[in-house]
Design goal:
- By secondary structure, this protein is an alpha/beta fold.
- Helix content is 32%, strand content 16%.
- It has one domain (11-264): TIM Barrel (Alpha-Beta Barrel), CATH 3.20.20.
- A nine-stranded mixed β-sheet has the order 6-5-4-3-2-1-7-8-9.
- The longest helix is centred in the N-terminal third of the chain and has 14 residues, at 44-57.
- It starts with 10 loop residues before the first strand and ends with a helix.
Length: 266
């Protein structure tokens, strides 16, 4: 499966909910958000059908995102469904980690290969400030548990404002080395202004080699995070939505003024 610029598309990011139990300042506005209605959210069966179609066309990697995916009821059942899809060789998840300690073993047993956890600071007060009230300690316990059960490599997503030498970023890196987790640095992004750069320690943000599509929780296949277009799998059908997303995938991201990080999946 190739886009119009001959880039192979092998990676599908799947947002399973726009709901989250944190309110991170760079992701959600302080006044709250307008949530999708429950009937608009894709069922597990619909998500699996999109993944199965993509796998037949060359998708090999799937990442489950949110919102916060672990607040979606019975999420391990979806993990098991996607893990069984022929052709999917890399099944990952991005989470804020607050609920991970009690679910890591269940996710591993269901077929999840690896996990990324958001961690921007090791200072409990700073963490509470960034997340608007979150508790750092359950996240740290969840990371340790993920390492213990073998969701490897465990990667820590650390948002930075300017560079990876910032005190918070250094403290996350040092702690990660102690517990056996890798760190990737994500520069602060702004969807509406089109502000983004390549992830340090990852592939995100490198438009020339972009291999991904995104499925939103309400069923839009989006060709690019920094692009307004999205194609409904319910209205167009799965095959046509894929075709349109491939056709409209831009050579490079620009800006997005129709979506937000919490309902696209970052």
């Amino acid at each position: 499966m190739y886009d119009s610029f001959n880039r192979p598309i092998t990676y599908l990011r799947v947002s399973v909910t726009d709901r989250c139990n944190l309110r991170c300042s760079y992701c959600m506005p302080a006044g709250g958000v307008d949530l999708m209605s429950h009937q608009d959210i894709l069922s597990f069966e619909e998500i699996a059908a999109v993944v199965k179609h993509g796998a037949k066309q060359g998708i090999t990697k799937v990442r489950i995102t949110g919102g916060e995916p672990l607040v979606r009821r019975n999420i391990s059942a979806l993990v098991a469904m996607l893990a069984s899809v022929p052709g999917i060789t890399d099944l990952a998840m991005t989470t804020n980690g607050t609920l991970l300690e009690g679910m890591a073993r269940e996710l591993k047993d269901a077929g999840l290969n690896r996990i990324n956890i958001s961690l921007d600071t090791m200072d409990p007060e700073r963490y509470a400030e960034i997340t608007r009230g979150g508790d750092l300690q359950p996240v740290l316990r969840g990371i340790r548990e993920a390492v213990k059960v073998g969701l490897l490599p465990v990667k820590l997503n650390c948002v930075i404002r300017e560079h990876s030498g910032e005190p918070d970023a250094r403290s996350v890196a040092e702690w990660g080395r102690e517990v056996g987790a890798e760190v990737r640095y994500i520069h602060m992004m702004t969807l509406h202004q089109g502000s983004f750069s390549q992830v340090e320690g990852g592939d995100g943000g490198n438009c020339a080699s972009c291999n991904r599509l995104r499925l939103t929780a309400n069923g839009l296949l989006k060709p690019c995070l920094f692009h307004n277009s999205g194609f409904s799998i319910r209205e167009l059908g799965i095959g046509q939505a894929y075709a349109e997303a491939l056709k409209h995938k831009p050579v490079c991201g620009s800006f997005n003024n129709t979506g937000t990080f919490y309902n696209i999946g970052g």
